[in-house]
Amino acid sequence: MASRQHRCNQCGILLMVPQESQAFKCSICNGITYFQSTGPLNQAYNSLNHIAGLFRGFINTITPTSSVVNSNSGNYGYYLQPQSLRPSYPLIPPSPYGSKRAVLCGVCYHGRSYRLKGSINDVKCMKYFLIKEFGFPSDSILMLTDDKEERNPLKIPTKYNIQMALRWLIEGSKSGDSLVFHYSGHGTQELNMNEIDDKYDNAICPVDHEHKGKILNGEINATIVRPLPFGAKLHAIIDACHSGNVLDLSFVCKMNREGYYKWENHTSSRTDKGRKGGVAICISACDDSQVSVDTSALSGKEVTGALTYSFIQTVQNEPGLSYGHLLNTMRSTIHGTKTGIVTLNGPIASILNRILGLRIKQEPQLSSSEIFDMYKKQFIL
């Protein structure tokens, strides 16, 4: 039987296939490749698989199975590993990451005067929480930290790596998917010269923000909110200062100490433009004008972000609670906690910390892409 050489459309390996074949299955990655001569429908399928394969390359480099060390430079090189892809009809490449996906970023800024102590603890706790409480697969959770033990340069929370991770989070998502973005690090506000009603943009600070710049709320919205398909949901848990509406969502819930709330409409041509209909909800550490803290006062031992700790503790202790109950309980937990003077250092501050107990003044906030009843809608990831 006559045969010919042809490259697999999934992994690129060169294989011998029968001359008269219209398609073949790769013996290495199990991917299906159709020859272009079989018509436009199969050409479209091959094209879609090729596009999906390009993006999967990013996550393959983040979870390498082998590495090579350059002894002269100390740099690590990572090989790509082909992933199998089974054909699915209609012609939409199936997501290899499942219906639950998460990106967790913890930035502690080693060696800086504004170093944080709890950020890496936060993302480690969040990963365990998502796996144990909500069944997120471990290999569908991408964690970026500037932990000193982290050797993979693609898992450091630089601006570029966070941007790529957010694209990975949304890529290939579909109705029924649950996506989570958790960030623990510094947040700030930037003067907005383009908006009349909104003088400041919220922003998060990657580890290299001093050189590469911050990631503004408009960019986060454009990356993971607008492309969210109808029927999919995104939860963002942002443990940072000035993070009230850091996803630039259309509605912000304003709740008083008694638990009464109203929705403020923050819709603009920028936030609503091109939105595909998925639901995005953000639980942030504090109002735009407030700062958040990391402290050991909540856990009694390890330093954690006040928002992350109160969020995990509340959900674990009260399964099936509503969003309104969640927000109220988190606020009560934080308000009832006394901590030291977190903005001062040195011997005088240490003495004052032991003598005086100051209550944490941050108030967790909730914003959303759509309005709902805070006390009827059940929280679930």
From TrEMBL:
GO biological process, one term: proteolysis
Domain of life: Eukaryota
GO cellular component terms, A-Z: cytoplasm
Residue span, Zinc finger LSD1-type domain: 8-32
Pfam families in the record: Peptidase_C14 (PF00656), zf-LSD1 (PF06943)
A GO MF label: cysteine-type endopeptidase activity
Domain Peptidase C14 caspase, residue spans: 100-371
Record family assignment: Belongs to the peptidase C14B family.
Name of the protein this chain belongs to: Metacaspase-3-like
